[in-house]
Amino acid sequence: MARTFPLERYRNIGIIAHIDAGKTTTTERILFYTGKTYRMGSVDDGTTVTDWMVQERERGITIVSAAVTCEWKGYQINIIDTPGHIDFTAEVQRSLRVLDGGVVVFDSVQGVEPQSETVWRQADRYAVPRICFANKMDRTGASFEMTIESIRHRLGANPIPMQLPIGSESNFRGVIDLLEMKAIYWSDDLGREMTFEDIPEDMLKPAEEMRAQLVEKVAELDDDLIVKYLDGVEITVPELKATLRQAVIESKATPIFCGSSLRNKGVQQVLDAVIDYLPSPLDVPAVQGTNPDNGSEVNYPPDDSAPLTSLVFKIVTDPYVGRLSYIPVYSGTLKQGEMAYNPTKGRRERIGRLLHMYADRREDVTEVYAGDIAATLGLKESFTGDTL
């Protein structure tokens, strides 16, 4: 079984936020636009993919993090939809430990809420690069500016608005892409059909001002760019994107997008941003470990031919297949039927069935390569937090 995507085309991301900011609805839209589902699930109707437990569907909340694999424009995206409730914060921490990047969803009526602050600090602790999505722009009282200010003041972040909303509250109908200086509208109810038009006359001046601020903020992040900027040389869009990507990976900047997941507006731009700005497994530092024999520190870069290194970050009991262990592979290749060593227990484990998870549904695979996340059956001695 050959690797489907090269390593630089993997994105392991988490959707994190305060409760009711719209994480699960955003995840549902992502699955719909990437072709994983043919109808959009609703939290209110209990038909979502990632909230698959009976308790989650009854209450309309996420209790356990669910892993889903999808494709977008030739990239494989492994998504973990995490809970927002403070009661399940350990579930968020476990997920953050294995993520390469995060999409933080904010309710643009409320701005930064208490649990958004908690998950932001946890993401800081694990050095997870982030992009932000100001959701619910169609609701009464929604404010993109207020959301950006609260991110700046309450989280101490460096937010960089990448878009400007067209209309607000019930009149919210599109966004202006400040990099390309185009207005984007969604012409059908499902949000599949996007039209790119010229910016409306009344919004041209504020859009130009915002773009000038965007260019200045991005130029400040790179020595070469700031020299070009001060010399009055025009900075190209690819240069801006490359500099911003590097700044996001180093957690020096956070691009902010806006939209309404429930009204199917703005989610495709978030998917594009995941590809453009969040790191692949090659962009994050090599995972560090300790040699159990002599206590020395060892590094494992993401390489298929290196020795196997992986971590059991979550265990669930599936009603159909039994005990499932979720495993990100940091280096090497995890193969079905092979033996893997658990240094914590000092025991060898046989790797049973390997699965790409799609919340509570699954797809069998024979090998999992470095940089990917999968689930395996049959681990008897390994528990959450154990290395393989």
Could you describe the 3D structure shown?
With 388 residues, the protein is an alpha+beta fold. The chain has helices spanning 23-33, 54-59, 89-96, 114-125, 144-155, 201-219, 223-230, 237-249, 267-277, and strands at 10-17, 66-72, 75-81, 101-107, 130-135, 159-161, 163-166, 174-177, 182-186, 194-197, 254-258, 287-290, 297-300, 309-310, 314-318, 322-331, 333-335, 339-342, 347-350, 354-358, 361-365, 367-369, 373-377. The strands form six sheets. A seven-stranded mixed sheet has the order 2-3-1-4-5-11-6, with helices on both faces. Strands 14, 15, 16, 20, 21 and 23 form a six-stranded antiparallel sheet that branches. Strands 7-8-9-10 form a four-stranded antiparallel sheet, with helices on one face. A hairpin with a 2-residue loop joins β20 and β21. α6 (201-219) crosses α7 (223-230). Mean pLDDT is 82; it is low at 49-65.
